[in-house]
Amino acid sequence: MERKSAKRRDIKFFSGKNQTVVCVHSVEAREYTKYLEGVTALERYEVDLPLELARFPHLSVVDIRAEYFTLDWVSDFQLFFDDGSAAIREFVKVQNLKKRAVVEQLELSRRYWQAVGIHDWKIVTDTALASLKEVEDDSVC
Q1: What is the pTM of this model?
Q2: Looking at residues 98-113, what average pLDDT do you find?
Q3: CA 76, CA 139: separation in Å to the nearest integer?
Q4: Phi and psi for 64 in degrees, rounded to 5?
Q5: What is the C-alpha to C-alpha distance for residues 138 and 12, in angstroms, rounded to an integer?
Q6: Burial environment of residue 22 by CB neighbours within 10 A (0 to 12, 13 to 18, 19 or more)
Q7: Nearest to 74 by CA among 101, 98, 96, 46
Q8: Lower Cβ count inside 10 Å, N or C end of the chain?
Q9: The pLDDT of residue 9
Q10: How far is CA 12 from CA 23, 26, 27, 29, in A?
């Protein structure tokens, strides 16, 4: 999860799964989309989903800085599966999980999406992404 106004690098590509051009903001996010393109049970995915500030007053504020509830945020990925279910995936580097600010942001995202009704919320780490890539590389051999 990132601030909506954060300056980022854009990586644009055509997504066969979505049949449109998709824009992500990191090499790691692009690698994750390559993985998503191959998931057969996945119908489509969206990136950079804005969180609605109007929903924030209904969330628990425990252990999250008050200022975070006044900022615009975007979640990294929303996944839509063939069975009609939806999921949220937030990308984070493992080294950043030691930072309180990052943990607070992730918790804000989790609470937000749970309140919206999406309970399949997970973190995708850079090390998990490396593991996915290794599995793909092994399957090619």
Answers
A1: 0.88
A2: 96
A3: 27
A4: -130, 130
A5: 27
A6: buried
A7: 46
A8: C
A9: 78
A10: 4, 10, 11, 11
